[in-house]
Amino acid sequence: MFEQHPVPQQISSYQFRLVGDMTLKQFFQLAAGAVVGLIIYSLPLPGFFKWPLIAVVVIGGAAFAFLPIQDRPLEQWLVAFFRSIYAPTIFVWKKADKPEEYFALEATVPQPAIAEDALTDTQPHDVATQTMEQNEQNFLSRVSSMFGGKQLQTMNVQPQSTMPAPEPVTPVPQASKPLQTVPAQAQVEVKPRGFVATAPSTQVTSSPIGQVFSSSGMAPANAAQFSPEAAPPTPPTSPNIIVGQVMDANGKIVEGAILEITDSEGRPVRALKTNRAGHFMIVTQLTSGEYSLTTEKEELSFKPVKLTLTGAIVDPIAIKSEDAMAASPAPEGRAVWAPQ
């Protein structure tokens, strides 16, 4: 069985205690029961009625002082009992005659009538206002006439002909000798020199603006060589992920080599750099198609590698240079052992 949660006690106020845990209020309640019992004892009442009444009064005073019920003293229970008895328990609902209008419009207040004398008193002020308005209208009319009064004059331009000016004819000097008779020849029809008018061409050729890549501009590439030994510590699990390792001709790993992946049209799609172990790996997947890997490293030369992606997991690619890396110089004061 669940116990009722105790009622919070009043701990902010201090109550004076006489003996032990008995407060001053409990002492007065106990003393009141004893005093009332003593008064009843002194009354001339029959014994069968007096003694039970004295016992009830004395026990009631002790109960009010030391017998709380559910952490509440008997006086609170008694007050709550009388409040519940005399409190109204029946509520009667009565319909209102007129419903309340919560969104009623505000009542309009009639404006007071103005006498004719009051209108005549404000006539000089109205005249000044009319004069000011007339001046403003005149000013606005002048401003509008400045912007809208003048009209642009249109000039008719006659098209000029593009025919060249005729060349001046230079007179031929006459010879002083007598003219010789020349046999008659057939007349040759000479067409006058001029220009042939051609209709202007209206054909407009549009060319796309941007970078154009040609598939034939790619350098010749070798087929990719797949090698399980070139796999990184964590091989890829997704398709179209290019991984591999860069080495020189002697199989030594190449660190810091720059790789550029281009598509079939020669456009760069990825740029990578090898780590200390010579491995490289792209993060995002590429679309299926043909790609070319170009590797660059100082003192080494690499041939482009051609690769075709088909949507499957790509094996690690081993890229080797055409020449070997130069041996690093030995530090001074130390001997370098080389196998014979």
UniProtKB/TrEMBL annotation:
The keyword Membrane applies. It comes from Candidatus Woesebacteria bacterium RIFCSPHIGHO2_01_FULL_44_21. Gene3D superfamilies: Carboxypeptidase-like, regulatory domain. The chain crosses the membrane at residues 27-45, 51-69. The lineage of its organism: Bacteria, Candidatus Woeseibacteriota. Keywords: Membrane, Transmembrane, Transmembrane helix. This is PrgI family protein.
